[in-house]
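INFO  loader      accepted 1 record
INFO  loader      residues=349
INFO  predictor   begin
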Amino acid sequence: MLFSLPDHPTLYAALLQRSHDYEGRAYVGVTSTGIFCRLTCGARKPKPENCRFYGCVADCLAAGFRACMRCRPLGRLDQTDPAITRLLAQLEVQPMRRWSEADLVQMGLDPSTVRRGFKRHFGATFLQLARQRRVQMGLRALSTGDKVIDAQLTAGFSSPSAFRLAFARLMGQAPGSLKRDAVLKAGCIDTPLGPMLAVADAKVLHLLEFIDRRALRGELARLRSRTGAEVGMGHSEPMAQVKAELVEYFDGKRAQFEVALAEHGSSFERAVWADLRAIPAGQTRSYGAIAAAMGRPGAARAVARANGANQLALVIPCHRVIGSDGALTGYGGGLWRKQRLLEMERKYL
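INFO  predictor   done
INFO  writer      dumping tokens
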């Protein structure tokens, strides 16, 4: 089923609360001003009889509404906050810099405001993202064959112990314990929504996750436990294939992935994942709808758990599952990514 808007009272309540649940999924057109906004807009709220709700920007424009200059619904979320845009640009220019709150103050920014803004949009603070970026650079260096000390310097860590600790928090093991001849190879893949960690053997892809996902360390531990194999750094054919397919996916040239997968889960979880792969790009399903389609209408919560257990982000599109009321529900990669993915996939309709 395509995403259908909830009723007027539900959306109006979300508008009053400035809820992020429908960000990128619903917009309000105000008949008294001729302007349309995000539901999170900070402007004075209109009367309910003056509100018309739409599912996309195109429908708002077709109805004759103009874009709000305050919440800028035609722009991306991170472009609506000048501080976020400015800091992300600085992070690209100076990826090895060890940022601190004092640096933010020196730039004329309020650290607490910056912290809230990044947490709201990305689920992590700017300082956390900056540190993750440095660890990712070290991870990438190791995957290309660099020694640990060289990877440490590439990542901008002056202390070997600090690099080992930061790396262990991400991977669940110290960089020196990684074996070049390990059966499972791990490597970084850059995407428009941030770097991803891919783990594959010579034949199949075992894991694909955004590197900043908090549960990544636990997922890697489960993968090692289920396969009985260690994870090392390197490259493999499935990794190269999924990298190429991800480029086509984000370019709007591929809606389905063909890389061979190793699905580590119960029979029920694998059945749920098969249903997820059957959802066409540009469409969504609710947990209840998937459970009903499987002949288990009372298993919506079990479907949600199986959805959360998916370790192959994007390839198995768990981001296409939403709440029964149309709200964006939890996503391990961050709700902001889920919103972006669903917005991007609309072109496949």
